[in-house]
Amino acid sequence: MRILVIKHGALGDIFLAFPAFSAIRAAWPDATISLLTAAPFAAFLGLSPWFDTVEVDARPEWWRVAGLLKLRRQLRGFDLVYDLQTSGRSSRYFALAGRPAWSGIAKGCSLPHANPRRGTMHTRERLADQLGVAGITALPAPDLGWAEADISGFRLPEKFAVLVPGAAAHRPAKRWPEEKFAALAPQMGVPVVVVGGAGEAELARPIRKVMPAAIDLMGKTSLAQLAAVVRRAALAVGNDTGPMHMAAAFGVPSVVLFSEESDPALTAPRYPDGGWPKILRAPHLSGLPVAQVVAALP
Q1: For the chain, which domains are there?
Q2: What would the pLDDT profile of 129-153 be if each residue is shown by its tens digit?
Q3: Rounded Cα–Cα distance for residues 180 and 207 (Å)
């Protein structure tokens, strides 16, 4: 049995799919399972026990013949495909793959997720519902023991909190102001580690200014190292962005900050058992008081 799983998305979407990945492997323990994903996640997901091979989808333009031929080769030869991306693009892969048994929303597929409420469901419940239609009825908490890396060089304290002041650069309204993170840091009660991407390095400076002992790991970790850091945190506070999904997936007590830019009912991080972290919402995060975040700390 050869199975293909398709999942691109941002980092948070990838982590929300972990229970589905684990459930597919549990349902097909002897199958050869491949993943087609975006380049930033390939090496990290290659560490997991869920996939025998991981392929990078270059997502070629439809008029680039060489790219399409490569994609066609990547999609062909599977007995069953779980399209967990369920986008317009990934649905077009159904025909390119030769119309195999297919779980998704592609027109004419054999295992359609036709729930009319799918657009209003949280990602976790939507994936569970889709897999339920395909015969996989349980999404147990996944074992994430594989998500490890050497972080000895970071010299982390035994107990610390993670701060995540970044978010998508093209959606600045998803960011609580960095000066408020700086005001929060000394009130966390434990040493602070700041994580995020290299392009977010400036967001750590206000925190370091008021708390020089804070450890700045902005842009200094691989995904596996970031996971190894985050999973050891005593708590995490941050915007609606990938590392906060990481924290919740590892069961780290978390406070996640949402503006009107996104709806937690659809996309919030979730704990391994499906539970919800503490969600704080404000139409504009600039109006969210530091005292309210401090009061929400676990």
Answers
A1: 2-133 (3.40.50.2000), 152-296 (3.40.50.2000)
A2: 999 999 999 898 999 999 999 999 9
A3: 9
